[in-house]
Amino acid sequence: MAIPVEEYLAHLLTDVGVLGVEEVAVTRAGGRVLAQDLVARLAVPPFDNSAMDGFALRAGDAIEGMVPVVGDVPAGGRLPVPLAAGTAVRIMTGAPVPAGADCVVPVEDTDQPSGPAPLPATIRVRSAPRPGQHVRRAGDDVAVGDVVIAGGTRLGAAALASAISIGYGRLPCHRRPRVVVVATGSELTAPGAPLGPGMIPDSNSTLIASLAEESHCEVVGVHTVPDDVGELARVLARAAAEADLIVSSGGVSAGAFDVVKELTAAAGFTFAQVAMQPGKPQGHGFVAGPAGRRTPMVTLPGNPVSVFVSFHIFVRPVLAAMEGELATPAYLRARALRGWASPAGRRQVIPVRLTPPESPEDPVPGATPTHRLGSGSHLVASLHRANALAIIPEDTTRVAAGDLVAVTLVGRF
């Protein structure tokens, strides 16, 4: 009997734990997962500063007519001296506002020209400013001691900028998973090689390795193995010594030459029929390595679309769990632009192409299967068009044009 997708994924997740922590230079931490909360060491902004190029003064002094200008305050350098009542200083964006000033008047609101110019002796303010105008107060964004980025966050460009702004040069991150890829099948040939009778190009090994790299992993081995139990055993023994996770394709169904199943069943692997289409046959377990090491292995079916779908539904969450990532896949709504069939009792996960909404009145993206035949597990040549997976519930047997469907984005993130 086929088991639900969530039940099988829960079994997979029990096989893995969170990897160790290492310090990483913030400039090289993109894509890593933060191992602990980041607490602000600096306030943001760290001091009161100007939001405009202009003149810092007391708001009340601007109504007195001409205001004497007593100096310049550029960005950087030492802090300015306190400002005497009845005077102003020329100030640049980001420069510290001197004590005694309570506002900044943009240069455009004075009788002075914009751009490079000699320091004027006086200025006339053309519109009455208010206290606090164009002043960024220290700690407006973040105060010292605030938790700014939660542990478990995958660090993108904005998070790295935030980490730097609050005083960090190095970040505690979970180690990236080391992955070994094993594609099985005597019918597989190297990319670009001539095809003999009954042979097909090995796209799976590159597909899995590339998906693992897109998932911010370190791929430490890629192997193509024929349907030979001895050769597979040797490859897996080497993989168990160097990998945190082994991902294989092929050899897990009900065929006479399913060597992955033949070899690993004796090692206590679990093989299941999952209520999903494509990707019904799945397996997982541990490969024995040196010094008692047990390396988790996820075994995927051999058809390329099944590999693509299974990686996103099962392997990517496993890799995220190994890095301690807290985020879960986000689901959107899209409108089917044409109809297709879905198998009864199985969750269909079909590669689709999302396109912009067809009208402002219906601001929902469109979704079209990447191949006219729908979700056939062998339709790899059209797979590159997929930028999302549509998730069709087990009790739905037909998607009609115009139906709303749940989709999750795929590709680099």
Task: Describe this structure in a few short sentences.
With 413 residues, the chain is of the alpha/beta class. The chain has 6 helices and 27 strands. The mean pLDDT is 93.
The number of helical runs is 6
DSSP strand (E) fraction?
Answer: 25-35%
How far apart are the first and last residues' alpha carbons, in Å?
35 Å
CATH hierarchy: architecture of the largest domain: 3-Layer(aba) Sandwich
Q: Determine the CATH superfamily of the largest domain.
A: MoaB/Mog-like domain
Let me know the largest β-sheet: 6 strands, mixed
State the CATH class of the largest domain. Answer: Alpha Beta
The Cα radius of gyration reads 30 Å
> Which class best fits the helix and strand makeup?
alpha/beta
- Overall tally of structural domains: 4
Low-confidence runs = none
Q: For the largest beta sheet, what order do the strands appear in spatially?
A: 15-12-16-20-19-17
Mean pLDDT score: 93
Q: How many β-strand runs?
A: 27
Per the principal axes of the C-alpha atoms, what is the gross shape? elongated
Please name the CATH topology of the largest domain. Molybdenum Cofactor Biosythetic Enzyme, Chain A
Range of helix content: 10-25%
Explain the overall architecture.
The chain is α/β, with parallel strands linked by helices and 413 residues long. The chain has four domains: 5-20 and 175-322, MoaB/Mog-like domain (Molybdenum Cofactor Biosythetic Enzyme, Chain A); 23-43 and 143-174, Molybdopterin biosynthesis moea protein, domain 2, CATH 3.90.105.10; 49-136, Molybdopterin biosynthesis moeA protein, domain 3 (Beta Complex), CATH 2.170.190.11; 332-409, MoeA, C-terminal, domain IV (Beta-clip), CATH 2.40.340.10. 17% of the residues lie in helices and 29% in strands. It has six helices and 27 strands. It has helices at residues 5-13, 157-165, 204-214, 229-242, 259-265, 304-322; strands at residues 21-25, 38-39, 49-50, 54-57, 66-73, 88-91, 103-106, 122-124, 135-136, 147-149, 170-174, 178-184, 188-189, 200-201, 218-225, 245-249, 270-273, 276-277, 281-288, 294-300, 332-336, 340-341, 347-355, 366-369, 388-392, 398-399, 404-409. A six-stranded mixed beta sheet has the order 15-12-16-20-19-17, with helices on both faces. The chain has a five-stranded mixed beta sheet with strand order 7-4-6-5-8, with no helix packed on it. It has a five-stranded mixed barrel with strand order 21-24-23-25-27. The protein is elongated and about 95 Å long. The model has no long low-confidence stretch (mean pLDDT 93).
